[in-house]
Design a protein that fits this description.
Blueprint (H helix, E strand, L loop, with lengths): L3 E5 L3 H13 L3 E5 L2 H11 L3 E5 L7 H11 L4 E5 L3 H6 L6 E3 L5 H42 L1 H10 L1 H10 L1 H8 L5 E5 L5 E4 L1 H7 L22 H8 L3 E8 L5 E12 L5 E10 H24 L3 E6 L4 E4 L1 H7 L7 H4 L4 H5 L2 H8 L3 E9 L3 E13 L5 E10 L1 H44 L2 H29 L5
Parallel strand pairs: 1-2, 1-3, 3-4, 4-5
Antiparallel strand pairs: 6-7, 6-10, 8-9, 9-10, 11-12, 11-15, 13-14, 14-15
Helix pairs in contact: 2-3, 5-16, 7-8, 16-17
Length: 479
Amino acid sequence: MMEHVLIVDFDRARRERWQELLSEYGFRVTVQADRAGALQAAERLGAKTILIGDCLPEADLPAFVRSFKRHSRRAAVMVLTDRPAVIESLRGIAEGFIGSTLPPLALEALIRGACERTTLRRRLHRQTTRFERRLETKLRERVENERFLAVKQIVDKLSSFIGRISRDVEGGVRYFNAMPYFVSIHDRSARVLAANRPYRSLLGGKAGTGSWRVFEGASAAPESCPVAQTIRTADARESREVVRYRSGAKVPVIVHTAPIYNNEGEVELVLEVAAGTQDVARLQEDTRQAQQRYQLIFDAVPCYVVVLDRGLHVSANNRAFVNEFGDRVGAHFTEVFPMNPSELAASPIEETLRKGVARHGEMVLVRPGEKRAHMLVWASPMATAAGKLMQVLVILLDISQVRELQTSLASLGLMIGSIAHSIKGVLTGLDAGVYLLTRGVARKDEAQVESGLETVQRMAERIRRMVFDILLFAKERKV
């Protein structure tokens, strides 16, 4: 498949020369002479390499190059120039510079290397995007399936939920039926207003019956049942009681009651939730197992995963992060990875905190031992059921080896171009020696024959040394 190269240059002669040269090397070339058309072409064509000339009129060249990098984030942007001032102003912005004296073979190797890097970046982006989506889907499914999330949503909506129940008993019953334990709403007279299905079917309680009728012992009296005590004290309370099933069985339970106030601050209703002690123990075990499963998934992720609060303090980290950076719960993110405020402000993490949406990008972070590492960073918001951002899930993937490979490939391309030119020179010398040798034999000129033979031998020796050097360079070595 032909690689696509976009050339942006106001100099028509140079633009056509580069187009003709790159077309001969098998590249698909598109040329543009103005800024607006070039940006549109870059966005439309998806070129892997963009070559920008240094003589665009009425254009700030550094800003122009930056605009291309923003529009084509995974394309290699290089500048055609021989001027040192231009090179210095674009250092760190452009990925490379191509001068007019660059040999054609080296140019081809340089452009192909840039296209290969772009292909690698795009493939890596697609793979990491798929990985991010799979990871987010699995985490979301796990979290959504855990009971504590449902409980948290109920707590967040408790006031409006109870208000709807008090206004519409039938609606309240419909919601209660989906709840697993004995849940009931009582009025100021200690009578049941609404109850869920387990309360009605197992305890025999129904709307209008006394709150005390399901209890045994001292709590079976109107003035001493948990609801009556909550109305009297206006405080939430917890107690261990014994309830009597319709079948006659007596079961120990833990009863929680909480007052619900009206606008005047008086107790209007009482929420009562009861669960068997065995059910509580089972719920605790289920919660513990759910937390263990969540932690196993968290630790099994092959990347560094860290959860940050809104102040960028570490709330949780997975095993890979702990093994590499230590358990840094409570530490600020900049204590783990030293950086200046401007770098942090431009990071995907800060952008996620500001906008509340998932972001990703690349950051250069300092690992233990003052070693700099290139990291792909994904930041996803973690919000409450009401949509309030509470934490940020950050996934870090070390791509330092990929960056080193890109550098090595660029060096290898330049070396191959240099070797090709050297071989070309040797072959030219060999042609000259063969020519002298042939002419000398034809003319029976011994001096010319000796000169040609000496040239051939000298070129053959150079070829032999060059081949041996290449084989020595290609020899596999232990790292």
